[in-house]
Amino acid sequence: MTDKLPTYKDIEQAALRIRGRAILTPLLENVQLNQQVGGRVFIKAECLQRTGSFKFRGAWNCISQLDPQINKAGVVAYSSGNHAQGVAAAAQLMGLPALIVMPEDTPEIKKANTKSYGAEVVTYDRARESREEIANHQAQRRGAVLVPPFEHFDIIAGQGTCGLEIAAQTTAQGIVLDHMLVNCSGGGLLAGIALALSENSPATRVHPVEPQGFDDYGRSLKSGKREKNEKSSGSICDALLTPAPGEMTFAMNKGRVGDGYAVSDAETEQAVRYAFDVLKLVIEPGGAVGLAAVLSGKIDVRCKCIGIIASGGNVDPASFARILVEAPQEGSK
Amino acid sequence: MTDKLPTYKDIEQAALRIRGRAILTPLLENVQLNQQVGGRVFIKAECLQRTGSFKFRGAWNCISQLDPQINKAGVVAYSSGNHAQGVAAAAQLMGLPALIVMPEDTPEIKKANTKSYGAEVVTYDRARESREEIANHQAQRRGAVLVPPFEHFDIIAGQGTCGLEIAAQTTAQGIVLDHMLVNCSGGGLLAGIALALSENSPATRVHPVEPQGFDDYGRSLKSGKREKNEKSSGSICDALLTPAPGEMTFAMNKGRVGDGYAVSDAETEQAVRYAFDVLKLVIEPGGAVGLAAVLSGKIDVRCKCIGIIASGGNVDPASFARILVEAPQEGSK
User: Fold this and answer.
1) For testing the chain A interface, which of B280, B281, B284, B322 should be mutated: the one with the most A CBs within 10 Å?
2) Would you give the DSSP letter of residue B277?
3) Most buried in the list A68, A199, B125, B183, measured by CB within 10 Å?
4) Is B120 helix (H, G, I), strand (E, B) or coil?
5) Can you tell me the distance from the alpha carbon of A6 to that of B24, in angstroms, rounded to the nearest whole number?
């Protein structure tokens, strides 16, 4: 790993770039949730972000720096769906073409949204093909710029703006978060937020949350080296199935973040249902694992202030309807 | 009508009372919605309010002024469901008993939530019985205080706090709303917001939005006298079926607010679906009529700044799932 790692100043620069482009999403608190868990839970509602997930932050921070005259061939990205939409929307704003490599089994809403931002979509088989290879090949062939989902200086710095906002929003309320749970796949959001909070809220312990069976980040933090997942599919958290921590993100997160948490798909579905019942937010499964960790008691939040991220809301209506009908209503009022 | 009407100062007083109890809900903007309608739409997300609707504002403003020593018999209210939850939650906070008279056909989630705040629920037949009579009888029998859903000085002043926040939030962004659409049933929220904006944003024209067939307020504003609806049920907007404008609210709104808009149930369902697809908010049908008016082109928002209210999010999961599966996805990306 030879790439330079972003610093706090790079997040500040990114914040200047995304101003007026990304949404300053609200940090929400819900009385009922607080009462139920016996602590204060602050929900950074990135499902309300442009393109329905935090991914626009990094994509815009990266793509807005391209010179449209030089980079006429545009951008190429691989993504399970949320980065795809962020890149497609950012490229459209810059007037650049975008080609996105997405898994065949990604939710339809993510494919449709990506195309709606003017991007070309190519699908691949998550189990048999390498998305990196396909994307690299396409980028070379076109002379386009590859915009990776997390292993990139500007992407990590861009996602870090979410952490800057959380720090400012909690400070404005006179609150210090004891723990900040970050839904984690490749670790870009985790790295950005942990870096931002290390400067602006050093007393806050940051933790990744992952689906059970896809807890490569948590296991890697424990062993001290980058561990892989055994499976490449098989969780409803389609956004969180990256096979292993990124090299850059792991270098940043190792030693800086605390233990990881892993939640079952059933716990995640209950969290999605709870968000509907109580929070009145549409959160996709991968965006609800932090809430699931809190609701399932994986982390003890009693008498504490806990931050979580509703990192995305791009879920197919049929899948959401199924969860509403099937997932038990738990502790809701 | 002999009751004193609230003034702007009463809303300011209410704002002091609800501080720290009610949520200061965000005023959201969505790039995709703006692009689609060619204007700027600002969404006051009262579905994120305590109890899932704006109704907690008025209920708390009223009930928090009761002396628990004197009013040991507590409160009685009649409500289609959102006021019920607001009253139940406010009474619970004050340590007072609450009895709520609700229509038999009200969504289960509204009955269950009301009970979960410790209230006793009595149901009645919307078509054959008078909820006012039942509630009055119960209040007298118990020696309890009746907390009406809109015909009340403190209720109207409390709902007006929503307007104060909208004015402050738009001013902070350097924006003046051209129009403010307010989902309307008895007219309490409309009266409160129109009063608040008449002082803090006098250039903003306020309008009620109602379901077609239940547009008593719009017709009353046109004729200059309080008109009744022909039907008492038959719209998916269960929160907006009050038979006629309130006397107090109409006295306040007449001459102050602009023409009303009426939307079909199909347009409302599409708005609920749109809120899921694009806004990532759970909005109940009655809370989505303002959005429906914008999306259906009932009001021309091109090159304008329009405020709408997502006034509530208490919708049964089965109803929501049905809308997701049946309502067409329209103009969404």
Assistant:
1) B280
2) I
3) B183
4) strand
5) 35
Using alpha carbons, list the distances in angstroms from residue B99 to B60, B74, B117, B134, B242: 16, 8, 11, 11, 20
Residue B320, min C-alpha distance to chain A (Å): 8
Nearest CA in chain A to B333: A113
Nearest to A177 by CA among A165, A160, A161, A189: A165
Using a CB–CB cut-off of 8 Å, the residues of B that contact A are: 23, 26, 28-29, 31, 47-48, 50, 52, 109, 112-113, 116-117, 273, 276-283, 313, 317-318, 320-322, 324-325, 329, 333
Q: Which two tokens mark B118?
A: 């410790």
pTM for this prediction = 0.96
Coil, helix or strand at residue A62: helix
User: What's the Cα-to-Cα distance from B260 to each of B2, B149, B192, B287, B299, rounded to whole Å?
Assistant: 26, 21, 16, 16, 10
When mean pLDDT is compared over A239-243, B185-189, B233-237, the highest value belongs to B185-189
A138 residue type, one letter = Q
Mind listing the pLDDT tens digit for each residue in A185-238?
Answer: 999 999 999 999 999 999 999 999 999 999 999 999 999 999 999 998 899 999
Partner residue facing A325 (CB), from B116, B318, B333 = B318
Chain B residues near residue A278 by CB distance under 8 angstroms: 52
Please give the C-alpha separations between residue A272 and each of A237, A286, A301, A305, B126, in angstroms, as whole numbers.
11, 9, 19, 21, 33
> Residue A264, class by beta-carbon neighbours within 10 Å (0-12 exposed, 13-18 middle, 19+ buried)?
middle
Q: Please give the interface size between A and B, counted as residue pairs whose CB atoms are below 8 Å apart.
A: 79
- B281 to chain A: which residues are within 8 Å by CB? 48, 280-282
Average pLDDT (A272-289) is 98
Closest-CA distance, A166 to chain B, in angstroms, reads 15
Contacts (Cβ under 8 Å, ≥6 apart) of A20: none
Q: For chain A, which domains are there?
A: 8-54+153-326 (3.40.50.1100), 56-146 (3.40.50.1100)
At residue A309, does pLDDT exceed 70?
yes
